Amino acid sequence: MIYPKVFLNKNEEKEIQQGFPWVFDNEISHIKHRKSEKEEWKNESLAQCSVEDGSLVEVYSKAGGFLGSGIINKKSRITIRIFAQENAASFEEDIDGFWERRVGEAAGLRHAYFSEGDSYRLIFAEADLIPGFICERFSTEDKKVILVVQFLSLSCEVYRDSLLAALNKICKPDGIYERSDASVREKEGLPMVSGWIGKEFSSQITIVENGIKLSVDIADGQKTGYFLDQKLNRLAAASFCHNKRVLDTFTHTGAFGLNAFKAGAKEVISADISPEAVKMVEKNIAQNKASSVMTAVCADVFDLLKKYESENQKFDVIILDPPAFTKSAKMIEKAYGGYKEINLRAMRLLNKGGILVTCSCSHFIESQMFCDMIMHAAMDSHRRVQILEKRGAGPDHPVLLGYPKSEYLKCVICKVL
């Protein structure tokens, strides 16, 4: 087999050598390929290239240094996703074994941190060296293991069967549900797909996290149905909530609020703009017998914070866990303003010495920028702030050096003076 060779423009290899696994369309100089040893090599530009999308290619620097192997997709700005340091021929000698080893390495890493009854992210795409592929492992209350998978790029879609075989062999799940319905698939030229792969179960499952029962809708909930990355941050926030009045915003499933309830909060208000989310919160309140302490509110959080300020309401702990305000570098300034507004309003609602747990899941808002936003929100709300902790995602979301997108979650615990 003769594999196409993709040559980069001058100096474009530096990020890849540091660990960045993507090649963008504007970084490619030319592509060299031939169909057989009898043919002459052709040099083609990306626009002229006749190599089929989904083909395995080798990536080289301008000077000819080998950088890795990956899958080409000319429909995407991310034209090549590199997943192997081996040359293409070595990789293709044992494709199934390669992916089984990758899945096994990811599973082994999680076994060091989590037990059989825990739910966690089993595979974190590029950070686990499987570009575009997400796998959540949910351990249900009735002892089932349900995997939720997302094939978000052509690079993993090509190896769908091998990846699913590896998951079945290593994890032995009771069921696998696919949530390949994210808009990023359209950029890859792929259709939206969702549903059970194989045996079917109810898509409404119950997991136990930090001793709390949580209903999760893996079919219709956001992304994969639940945000596992905040598990340890919920526990950290709860340590400040005993006998406190707590406001939990952008609550989704009510998980932060329920952790506060379990820690002995005297009152918890959990708010979300989605009626479906609020129904799920109410279900979770009921099954944890938290209704005497906890209330679910359907409201726009920006409007709710203004309302509480006009009513001169006060809280001891406020949790801000909004969705990503920007998924584009062009929208950073607007997103910064959104984060600043909710943070300064939250600071005004806190009692003296109150705790603000503030989060961002947008990788475009870097940690330093996020803390700068908190500082300016404090200035505008005439408060002084001590940062007690800077936290991120749990150990099931490893950070791949050289790939900053994998370090996306910021969770800052502040004392507002």
Describe the protein.
The protein is α/β, with parallel strands linked by helices and 417 residues long. The chain contains twelve helices and 21 strands. Strand 5 and strand 6 form a beta hairpin.
Blueprint of the fold:
Layout: E1 5-8, H1 14-17, E2 22-24, E3 28-33, E4 42-44, E5 56-60, E6 66-72, E7 78-84, H2 88-92, H3 95-111, E8 120-124, E9 133-139, E10 145-151, H4 154-157, H5 160-171, E11 175-180, H6 184-187, E12 193-197, E13 204-209, E14 212-217, H7 231-238, E15 245-249, H8 255-262, E16 267-272, H9 275-287, E17 294-298, H10 301-310, E18 315-320, H11 332-349, E19 350-360, H12 367-380, E20 385-391, E21 410-416
Parallel strand pairs: 1-5, 10-11, 15-16, 15-18, 16-17, 18-19
Antiparallel strand pairs: 1-3, 2-7, 3-4, 5-6, 6-7, 8-9, 9-10, 11-12, 13-14, 19-21, 20-21
Helix pairs in contact: 3-5, 7-8, 10-11, 11-12
Strand content: 25-35%
Which regions are unreliable across 5 or more consecutive residues at pLDDT < 50? none
Task: Count helical runs.
Answer: 12
How does the helix and strand content classify structurally?
alpha/beta
Portion in helices: 25-40%
Q: What's a quick, concise take on this entry?
A:
This protein has 417 residues and is of the alpha/beta class.
